[in-house]
Task: inverse folding
């Protein structure tokens, strides 16, 4: 005893944990006791699924949506002073498209088990709940970005979120209606981009281009997916009425669009670079309009769908490079 302080060694209970050693081992023990390592494992599991989430939202489609909105805004008179609303509008469009892709896979899981077994949900990398959470988060982001741009863009964004949700749930399996909805929503991206900075009328021609090429592409995809659609009782046009009507409408949509581009070029609505570039897009679309009749295998239709996606990008480039000077 010294100064009233008991300096005798205290006995340790056999059930009492000894104090952890100092340094790194101490921190390691704390991590074990607090569950930090479990959270680290969950983080690693989530990070390993990043490629699956990227596949779910289809980055190339998001790039096309982004470019469509930017082009529409510039065509409507947007300039350096409109960079902020244009970027916000484009990010809102990306969020809408990403959410639409996610919710589409959530409702199409049974069809994709047959038609696209390499998609993230049929592969077992993601669940339908994951897809729903991605849709919900993207919808919130889209609404937030849209509200920052303005009232009309916000209304267009939220209208697109609602329409695309019900498209994936109900309308996609309706003959032709689903195809028209997708084409309309894609064309609306140009109207929306124009609304972000100026008069919506300037987005009408690119909107018509996007509408027709996407209607054709959706019909091609319906032909490609008809086996899985039939198994899931989805009444798409090829399932309900056969492949021939879908082929006719595909070729008709593309030929009408080629004629529209020629009318636009002849009236000099866009500057000189427009014509030679759009002719490349027209050649791609003319090829699909003919090749859709060659055979109806899923592999062939998938390749034609890719050609139409390329035609969309080339056509977008023609509109951008040929845009009228202010």
Result:
């Amino acid at each position: 005893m010294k100064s009233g302080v008991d300096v005798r060694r205290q006995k340790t209970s056999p059930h009492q944990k000894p104090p952890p050693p100092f340094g790194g081992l101490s921190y390691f023990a704390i991590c074990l006791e607090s569950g930090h390592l479990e959270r680290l494992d969950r983080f690693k599991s989530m990070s390993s699924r990043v490629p699956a989430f990227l596949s779910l939202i289809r980055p190339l489609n998001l790039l096309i949506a982004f470019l469509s909105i930017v082009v529409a805004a510039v065509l409507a008179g947007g300039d350096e002073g409109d960079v902020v609303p244009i970027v916000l509008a484009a990010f809102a469009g990306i969020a809408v498209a990403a959410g639409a892709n996610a919710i589409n896979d959530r409702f199409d899981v049974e069809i994709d088990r047959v038609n696209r077994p390499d998609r993230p949900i049929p592969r077992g990398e993601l669940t339908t709940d994951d897809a729903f959470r991605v849709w919900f988060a993207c919808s919130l982001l889209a609404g937030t970005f849209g509200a920052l741009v303005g009232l009309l863009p916000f209304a267009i964004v939220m209208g697109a979120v609602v329409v695309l949700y019900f498209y994936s749930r109900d309308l996609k399996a309706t003959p032709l209606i689903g195809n028209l909805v997708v084409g309309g929503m894609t064309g609306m991206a140009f109207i929306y981009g124009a609304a972000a900075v100026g008069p919506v009328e300037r987005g009408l021609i690119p909107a018509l281009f996007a509408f027709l090429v996407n209607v054709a592409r959706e019909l091609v995809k319906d032909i490609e997916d008809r086996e899985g659609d039939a198994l899931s009782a989805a009444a798409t046009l090829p399932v309900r009425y056969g492949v021939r009507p879908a082929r006719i409408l595909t070729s008709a949509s593309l030929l009408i669009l080629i004629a529209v581009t020629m009318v636009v070029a002849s009236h000099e609505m866009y500057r000189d670079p427009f014509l030679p570039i759009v002719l490349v897009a027209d050649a791609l679309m003319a090829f699909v309009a003919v090749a859709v009749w060659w055979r109806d295998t899923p592999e062939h239709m998938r390749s034609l769908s890719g050609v139409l996606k390329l035609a969309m990008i080339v056509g977008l480039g023609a509109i951008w490079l040929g845009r009228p000077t202010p």
Summary: The two ends are 94 Å apart (CA to CA). The first helix runs from residue 24 to 34. Confidence is low (pLDDT under 50) at residues 1-12.
